[in-house]
Amino acid sequence: MQNNDDGNARRTMVVYMTNVVVAACRAGSGSAGHGVWLNGNADSKSAMMAAVGVNCTIADNAGRGLFLDSSEGSGSSVVLYNSIVARNGGDGIRTADLSAGGPAITEEFNDFYGNTGANLVRVGTGGTNAPALNGSDVTGDPRFAGAGGKAEPYNLGSGSPCFNAASAAYAPDVDVLGTPRPVKRVDDIGAYELIPPRGTVILLR
Questions:
Q1: Which DSSP string do the residues of 38-98 spell out, in sequence order?
Q2: How far is the C-alpha of 8 from the C-alpha of 124, rounded, in Å?
Q3: pLDDT of residue 195
Q4: Helix (H) and strand (E) counts for the chain?
Q5: By the 8 A CB rule, do 88 and 61 touch?
C-alpha cells in the first residue's frame, strides 16, 4: 500500500485490521515480501500513516512482518494488540519516519516468535533503536496446528502460549472463522480461537 500525493497537501492513510491472517508473502514483482507494507513515496513529504491491528496473525512472510515506511514524513504510528508476529524473514515490526525517535509502536498482549530480525525496530533522524517488548507479551512458538497443508494452517495447536493470553479489552466478539470469543474463559492471541478436541482436559489460568 502506497500513500501518494503531489507533495503539497498532507495525506493520511490509516489501515485497520481485525481477525486478519497475513502469511507467506514472497518477494517478486517489486515486492520485498513484507506481510503488511505501508509505504509513503518520495512525493508524499508530509504523509502520515498508521496501522492498527487487533487479533491478527502475521507469519511466515519473506520480509518483515509489518513495515511502516514514512521516511518522507512524520507522525506515523503502529498499534497492535492480541496478535501473533512469528517466523518472518525480517524484523517483526519496523517503522521509519523523519521524527527523532521514529514512529511510535504501541503494543500489548502479542506473541513475537522466531522473526529473523528484531521484534520491534524504530528508525528516525536520531538513529535506530529496538524497543523492549511489553510485559504482557509472550515469546513462545504459537504452535500452528495446521502446519503441513491443512485448510487452516494458522489455527492454534495444543500447548500454544497464545491460548488464554489475550486481553478481552481489545478482542472482537468472534474470530476469523466466526467462532465466538472467548471459547474458554479468556480470549486467545491471534486470528483464531483454539477449539480443543472433545474430551480434552484444559487447566485454566
A1: EEE-TT-TT-EEEEEEES-EEES-SS-SEEEEETT----EEEEES-EEES-SS-SEEEEES
A2: 22
A3: 84
A4: 0, 14
A5: yes
C-alpha cell at 113: 516468535
Q: What are the pLDDT digits (tens) for 153-179?
A: 999 998 999 999 999 999 999 999 999
Is the omega angle on the peptide bond into residue 153 within 30 degrees of 0, that is, cis? no
Contact between 138 and 161 under an 8 Å Cβ cutoff? The reply is yes
Angle at 105 between CA 84 and CA 99, to 5 degrees: 150
In the block, cell 520480509 appears at 63
Alpha-carbon distances, residue 190 vs 22, 61, 88 (angstroms) = 11, 16, 15
Please give the Cα distance from 65 to 82 (Å, whole number). 15
By CB atoms closer than 10 A (0-12, 13-18, 19+), residue 41 is: middle
More confident residue, 202 or 181: 181
The β-bridge relationship of strands 111-113 and 21-23 is unpaired
Average pLDDT over residues 13-37: 87
The grid coordinates of residue 201 equal: 482436559
24 pLDDT tier (thresholds 50, 70, 90): very high
Buried b (16+ CB within 10 A) or exposed e, 166-193: bbeebbeeebbeeeebbbbebbbbbbbb
The CA distance from 47 to 60, in Å, is 29
